[in-house]
Amino acid sequence: MLGSVAASAADPVAALGFNPEKLTDYEGGLKTTLFDNRVRLNVAGFYYDYTDLQVQQIYGTTLITANAASAHIYGAEAELTAALTRALTIDGNASWLHARYVKYIGPQDLPPFGSADFSGTNSFVTDFRYEG
């Protein structure tokens, strides 16, 4: 999303605007087919370095877009498919994601606690799943 100023300048908080977010990312992976095309193994990894990450905040009754100072997100994924017999193929995958705000102070004067410092905290909820 580009930097902008809110369409309604009647609310002074919404009229503050926000900067465009910047992302430096690195990604790599490997796709393999092994054992006479009976096994396929794919792996990938990535690292994202955000500056001025755009976040949405509720200030009073207004939803505003603001900038968190910075965030780092990195992770990996693996996928395996194996044809054990002509009638039996198994497959599975796994992924890991680590996401943290490096520096992010929430909205000022957040009732009743004041502003919140989210630096060093997870920016995403961890979710574990199993499908059988």
Number of distinct helices: 0
Span between N and C termini?
A: 38 Å
The largest pleated sheet is described as: 4 strands, antiparallel
Shape field: elongated
Structural class: mainly beta
H/E order of the elements? EEEE
Strand order within the widest beta sheet: 1-2-3-4
Question: Which bin fits the share of residues in helices?
Answer: under 10%
Instruction: Note poorly predicted spans.
Output: 123-128
Give average pLDDT, whole number.
76
| Beta strand % | over 45%
Gyration radius, rounded: 21 Å
Total DSSP E strands = 4
What's the topology here?
Blueprint: E1 22-34, E2 39-59, E3 62-83, E4 89-103
Provide the descriptors you would attach to this structure in a database record.
mainly beta; 4-stranded antiparallel β-sheet; 0% helix; 4 strands; 132 residues
Provide structural commentary:
This protein is mainly beta. The protein contains no helices and 4 strands. It has strands at about 20-35, 40-60, 60-85, 90-105. A 4-stranded antiparallel beta sheet has the order 1-2-3-4, with no helix packed on it. A hairpin with a 4-residue loop joins strand 1 and strand 2 (about 40-60). It starts with about 20 loop residues before the first strand and ends in a 29-residue tail after the last strand.
